[in-house]
Amino acid sequence: MDIFALIPQFSGLIWTLLAFVIALSVIVAVHEYGHYIVGRWSGIHADVFSLGFGPVLFSRTDKHGTVWQLAALPFGGYVKFAGDANAASGKDTAAMEQAQADPARLRSTMHGAPLWARTATVAAGPAFNFIMSILIFAAVALSVGVAKDPLTVGEMRALPYEGSQLEPGDEIISVGGVTIPPALDETAYSDAFAAVPVAESLEYQVRRDGQTITVQGPYLMPTLIKQVMPQSAAFEAGLIGGDVITAVDGTPIFAFKQLKEKVESSEGAPLLLTVWRDGETLEFTMRPKVTDEPQPDGTFKSQMRIGIVGGTAFDTATTTPGIFEALWGGVENTGRIIQGSLSGLKHMIVGNISTCNLSGPVGIAQTSGAMASQGAQSFIYFIAVLSTAVGLLNLFPVPALDGGHLVFYAYEAVTGKPPSDGALRILMTIGLTMVLGLMVFALGNDLFCP
């Protein structure tokens, strides 16, 4: 065996693990800091704030008496509040009995604090995850801008097409005789793009320097790859953003819808793609994968996909949104992720889509590495998406998760007393078993799903 042949694979593994650890550490740190800071504001003392589990590599104690530590296993973290027996906030019976004699000390424990303080402290973890996602989405919008309305040419992309008369700053009125409506009307905007005639060269009616003129340009949605999705056939084959697919199995194509038709009709058979990359012609063979895609009506549809995102023949000119517009866009993006996740979970439970859509730690690590390899913006965006997913998962009403604790607090609010210690121990054991079972199931998906 040539050991040097393993170096690129080893390097890729290290990169994947590093990206995964960074993404997970940021998300866990924000989540746990939410618990910590709201607990402190609520008068609950934190004994330990740990990033990671296992042997402690570094620690220090702050002026509030909280031990901040970095542990050897960077796959999670926890805040241990006064009165907690463990990282899952189980009650330390002995410590609570000792605190009974001192009202101030009892008030500073997690289990002796008022119901409102405990509820706020537990809910703060997922809330901070959602807030981080919103802020990241808003920051991305502020840094890269949002598309101008009407559709405006920013810069022409590199394409194997000659003769384009489009220029930066042209406002698109119509393409191939199809009027392009304002982007705010998403349905009409999408319908217009779909109605553009399939031709390699089209007439564009544009507004330039205050005048309306007609110029020639390439097909509006060419076979240009804007982004390659992680763990997809295209990613595994080596396609990258900026590639232009010029033929499938020897048949020339120029429109993204032509490529889509070829992939969907492949029935999973290998496809030979001819690709134009910076003036060079390359060939790639890949086998499309079945993908469950969400539909506008909330259902899912299984389609053959190679895992690429297309775009227009030009970079769309952008404008910088206002702070409130960017924040509202962040809220909408976070809401869409939550809605899509819940819809996907529902359809997996009822059997409408495959449970292979549920990724475990290996799948998430692979995605982390893939997104990091596509640049800082893609990786940061992925962290925002994963943060929303972590916040949502923690709100599920499962004992041992934040949502389970909130259910216990709701029970206490209704009945006037918390569940008994015996009942809590049983429920927490069931909850931990469910969480571990889900992790094992997801790991099985990573290892055995096609």
What would your notes on this structure say?
Helix 9 (361-373) packs antiparallel against helix 10. The protein is an alpha+beta fold and 450 residues long. The protein has helices at residues 7-41, 93-99, 103-107, 115-144, 186-195, 233-237, 256-264, 323-349, 361-373, 376-394, 402-415, 421-448; strands at 46-61, 67-81, 146-147, 153-156, 171-175, 178-179, 201-208, 211-218, 227-228, 244-248, 251-252, 271-277, 280-286, 289-294, 300-305, 308-309, 314-316, 318-319. A hairpin with a 5-residue loop joins strand 14 (289-294) and strand 15 (300-305). The strands form seven sheets. The chain has a four-stranded antiparallel sheet with strand order 6-5-7-8, covered by helices on one side. The protein contains twelve helices and 18 strands.
Key attributes of the depicted protein:
450 residues, alpha+beta, 4-stranded antiparallel beta sheet, 12 helices, 23% strand, disordered N terminus
Question: What's the number of extended β-strand segments?
Answer: 18
Radius of gyration: 26 Å
Continuous helix count: 12
Order of helices and strands: HEEHHHEEEEHEEEHEEHEEEEEEEHHHHH
